[in-house]
Design goal:
The complex is a heterodimer. Chain A is α/β, with parallel strands linked by helices. In chain A, the strands form 3 sheets. In chain A, strands 7, 8, 9, 10, 11 and 12 form a 6-stranded mixed sheet that branches. A 5-stranded mixed sheet of chain A has the order 4-1-5-13-6. In chain A, α12 packs across α14 and α15 runs antiparallel to α16. Chain B has a single domain, classed as 3-Layer(aba) Sandwich (Rossmann fold), CATH 3.40.50.300. Chain B is built from 7 helices and 10 strands. In chain B, the strands form 2 sheets. Chain B has a 6-stranded mixed sheet with strand order 6-7-8-3-9-10, with helices on both faces. Chain B has a 4-stranded antiparallel sheet with strand order 2-1-4-5, covered by helices on one side. In chain B, α3 packs parallel to α5. The longest helix of chain B is centred in the last third of the chain and has 16 residues. Classes of the chains: A alpha/beta, B alpha/beta. At the A-B interface, α15 and α16 of A face α2, β6, α3 and α5 of B.
């Protein structure tokens, strides 16, 4: 494991160096360009109609946000340049100056308004409940979905609405990191409904003929552009450009081109262009009126629950990893040649591919064959992955027990199995303890990857917390403290055991 | 068995390491209560004879009879055959090979409990008696790394004797002992023989061999020289 992490760190350092060189080259090109740029950030993974790689030329992006960015750049007499940013980090990236404006179906919220400079809203959307066509008569509203799993995108208005419904109506919220898999999982029955904005809902229903959208909206929200808090002047120029485009029909033309135009927008534009103060319609969210302190108190129980999930998942995965590791190591030490070769191949396959990929394959890739619940898929993924690393630890530990002791055991009449259980195993375990402790602590942290297959563990809950209150400071500290609370006792216990055993 | 009968009878023993023969045509008999010293330079084949008799290395040719149990060419004994063999023969290694994670006492009773299925209190009492008998009773609760070379050897002898084999093999027992201790060891082995044990001791320490053995056999290049 040590080598693994070291090599990862080295790889990361290289990647950073290469990125620096590329960035320097880009800066050189940019300063050579005549017109200044409007750097805009978005997530091309979000897909059509927002931003997506152009199917005809994947080096370009297309989408209504691309058209809006081009329109804004023209109004500012600048050249638009797209900067790819993960959806959940757009807020943090724009605040630290990675680009001038974030445009990616970003929802207006109180938290964003307190932390960032926010443009006037340029699109009004309804939150729509999508269900399987057969369930349409019985799942009309959130109240009909008591005890049912409802998917959404984490850190969105829909997520806040669902969190409220979790308390009021007893629905089970299943947050996703992307807006495509909620609909595929709804189609195959992993969840019973999806709550997302109408743009995504329309796309979801288009892609999955077995799904249908309920007619009544569950809530209303607005798309806005977000800028760093100090970019007030640029924000005001952009607001002016947006309002001009609302009056002269350029925005309407864009949304018509993307088949998103409706009367809601006509009304929104009338209201926005009439209001010279530029303030957007209020969209109170659950966390809207709370101070950081109150929000922390409110989120603490869910953070603690998430920490328990992290702990339970890590402990069970480690237990599975130990069993898998012991079996693989025994096979590689005691098995016949073909078994050894097969197991060596398996270990190399698991160690040579990313854990994230393995989790995706187990959860989404196998879904057509067997639909594993997210927690079980996470447990299997982590257990198999770490099992490969454990097996290497155990194999080398087993091989470090002096062969003379095995001869001695044989002359006393012990069977191979008894020798393993009584003599070789216990001594190997002592050698393996320190690397196993390392692995458990690493597993505790790697378990955060399972949020990508909808398990809400500590890191995920922290992300949700942070994006709702608009700052990482308090949530980050709390999250770090909780991880330490989980990992320190393990390290402490391991040190004590080692001290006890050192005598022997 | 009447005194004078062979506890160990080896006929035309051949042992190979890979394709290379390391023991060729060795025949010997050891009677009950006898101490046989097998002498010879390093590589003469002494240890290979002991390992073949102890069932650690396969026999390539010839036969070995231990207290009525016949070993012949073929794969190493396993399962019940292995347990049968080790009811008859114990071995003390040059480097002792005590189980490092267990106390001295635990080293000695482990096979009594797990191989011979004796109840733990009885096994522990037997182990304590043996350690006392060999003069290391005071070290019962120590772990192997705390022992001197001489103490470790006595513990290794106790561990091998615990399961009660009539035949005890010892490989280079003086290697880890200073000269004063060699005399003590010779006396101990003599006492064991007088209690009816049969010992085969591989050594290149001539003085020690003469001090303890009833009979000395010299090996050279895998054969019995005289």
């Amino acid at each position: 494991m040590g080598h693994y992490w070291r090599s990862r760190i080295v790889a990361r350092a290289w990647a950073r160096a290469v990125m620096c060189v590329c960035a320097a080259a880009l800066v050189a090109v940019n300063t050579a360009a005549q017109t200044p740029e409007l750097r805009w950030g978005g997530d091309a993974e979000g897909g059509a109609p927002f931003v997506e790689a152009d199917p005809a030329d994947p080096t370009r992006v297309v989408g209504f946000e691309v058209d809006i960015a081009a329109m804004l750049a023209e109004g500012l007499n600048r050249t638009p340049r797209f900067i790819q940013t993960g959806f959940t980090t757009i807020d943090a990236s724009v605040a630290r100056g990675d680009f001038d404006i974030g445009l990616s179906g970003i929802e207006d919220s109180f938290a964003r308004r307190t932390r960032l400079a926010v443009t006037v809203p340029y699109y009004r959307f309804r939150e729509i409940l999508t269900v399987r066509a057969a369930d349409a008569p019985r799942y009309r509203t959130l109240a009909d979905l008591r005890g049912r799993r409802v998917a959404t995108l984490a850190a969105t208005l829909a997520f806040d609405l669902l969190t409220a419904a979790e308390k009021d109506d007893g629905v089970v919220v299943v947050p996703y990191e992307d807006d495509v898999h909620p609909y595929t999982d709804l189609a195959i029955g992993r969840v019973d409904a999806v709550l997302l904005d109408e743009v995504l809902a329309e796309r979801g229903v288009r892609r999955h003929p077995g799904l249908t959208n309920q007619p009544t909206s569950v809530g209303v929200g607005y798309y806005v552009g977000i800028l760093a808090p100090q970019s007030i002047e640029l924000r005001n120029q952009i607001d002016a450009t947006l309002k001009q485009a609302m009056r002269d029909g350029r925005l309407e033309a864009i949304f018509r081109r993307w088949k998103m135009w409706n009367d809601d927008q006509r009304n929104l534009y009338a209201r926005v262009t009439a209001d010279e103060s530029g303030s957007a319609p209020q969209t109170p969210t659950a966390a809207a009126q709370l101070s950081v302190w109150d929000a922390t108190l409110r989120y603490l129980p869910s953070l603690l629950t998430a920490a328990v999930i992290t702990l339970v998942l890590s402990v069970l995965s480690m237990a599975l990893a130990i069993v898998v590791g012991v079996l693989i190591a025994s096979g590689r030490v005691y098995g016949p040649a073909p078994v050894k070769a097969l197991l060596t191949g398996w270990v190399e396959l698991i160690r040579g591919t990313p854990l994230l990929l393995q989790l995706f394959v187990i959860y989404y890739g196998l879904a057509t064959v067997v639909q594993l619940p997210a927690f079980l898929a996470a447990l299997i993924g982590l257990g198999l992955n770490y099992g490969a690393y454990e097996s290497e630890i155990y194999r080398s530990a087993l091989e470090s027990v002096p062969p003379g002791q095995l001869d001695a055991a044989r002359t006393l009449g012990f069977s191979d199995r008894q020798t393993l259980m009584l003599i070789r195993g216990p001594q190997a375990l002592r050698l393996a303890l320190a690397p196993m402790t390392n692995d458990f602590v690493a597993l505790l942290k790697d378990s955060s990857l399972v949020s990508l297959i909808t398990v809400v563990e500590l890191t995920k809950q922290t992300t949700i917390f942070a994006s709702n209150i608009g700052t990482w400071f308090v949530p980050g500290m709390l999250c770090a403290a909780l991880y330490l609370v989980l990992s320190l006792p393990v390290s402490h216990l391991a040190r004590r055991l080692e001290r006890t055993w050192r005598r022997a | 068995m009447a005194p004078g009968m062979s506890v160990l009878a080896i006929r035309d023993l051949e042992v190979r390491r890979g394709a290379r023969p390391v023991v060729r045509g060795v025949s010997l008999d050891v009677t009950r209560g006898e101490i046989l010293a097998v002498m010879g330079a390093s590589g003469a084949g002494k240890t290979s004879v002991l390992r073949a008799v102890a069932g650690l290395d396969p026999i390539a040719g010839g036969s070995v009879a231990i207290d009525g149990l016949q070993l012949s060419a073929g794969p190493l004994p396993r399962g019940e055959a292995l347990r049968e063999l080790h009811r008859r023969v114990g071995m003390v290694f040059q480097f002792h090979h005590l189980f490092e994670h267990l106390t001295v006492l635990h080293n000695v009773w482990l096979a009594l409990v797990h191989v011979q299925r004796q109840p733990l209190p009885e096994a522990e009492r037997k182990a304590r008696d043996l350690l006392d008998h060999l003069g290391v009773g005071a070290r019962a609760d120590a772990v192997p790394r705390e022992l001197s070379g001489g103490e470790a050897q006595r513990v290794a002898i106790a561990r091998a004797l615990a399961v009660g084999p009539p035949l005890l093999l010892m490989d280079e027992p003086t290697a880890s002992l200073d000269p004063a201790r060699r005399g003590e060891l010779a006396a101990t082995l003599r006492q064991l023989a007088s209690e009816g044990r049969t010992l085969v001791v591989a050594t290149h320490d001539e003085e020690f061999a003469r001090a303890c053995a009833h009979r000395v056999l010299i090996m050279d290049e895998g054969r019995v020289a005289r």
